[in-house]
Amino acid sequence: IGTFHTSCALPEGSATDMTEKDILNNGSFHVNHHNEDSRDNNVYDDETGNDVDTRIETNNGQLSKDVITDDIVRRKAFRWCQDSIGGAWLDLQSENKLKISPVGGGMSNYLYLVSLPDGMTPVRSEPTEVLLRIYGQISKSTLDFLVHNSVVFALLAERKLGPKPYGMYHDGRIEEFIQARPLLPEDLRKPEIMGMVAEKLAQFHALDMPLCKKPRWFKSLLRGWIKDIQNNLELNKSVFATLLKMAPSFDLETEFHELLADARRLNCPIVF
């Protein structure tokens, strides 16, 4: 079971009734990984479109230090783009000159479209807009995350299976912005589109990536989820009182071992 999640997208403004032939001929079917291995922590003001401070409450009601503010986003975007892209980005005198807007579709990463101000043109061939990704809580979950994430991202880009990287940092990166939209549920019900998704997924499964070939990810993932559930139930008993009353007979350990036994019986190959 691979640990790298992909999402599929159609070009901006595409009709959802495009045929498989239309999409392939136009080169307009993208597989991107703007949604990798995470959960959506982004909170935005619905009226203004501006990002609101994202805070995680602890069990005693206090705000944690995991806060992403507009100032933080601007500082990172300004510094990273100047350091890693150069060109016209170096001519910016202030971080406030950047055009920044939130991008939906992430899962635990904070995603933003960062653009040069109107009227500025590239000095060479540098991009005028990029995707800014600030890692969320998932980056703190394992020491291997940053290494594996960066290596996989770079290799997929080199093989033309993902966006081009422009700069990588311990708490995020800047990458090529692909003008596209995520597939909607009604798109996924169309056999011609799902056929393309299956073909792309097969391409990923066929890759030989420098990752662990032992079937340990599934076990580690489930064990982590069980631990999170147990910790949350213990720390937030009042919040989860209703859940505890509804499901007093949950035996997660037994189900965990049954799932592992089922997985072993399937004897599936380990793929990316």
From TrEMBL:
It comes from Arion vulgaris. It comes from the Eukaryota. GO terms for cellular component: cytoplasm. Keywords: Lipid biosynthesis, Lipid metabolism, Phospholipid biosynthesis, Phospholipid metabolism. GO terms for biological process: phosphatidylethanolamine biosynthetic process. This is Uncharacterized protein. Belongs to the choline/ethanolamine kinase family. GO terms for molecular function: choline kinase activity; ethanolamine kinase activity. The gene is ORF23323. InterPro entries: Kinase-like_dom_sf.
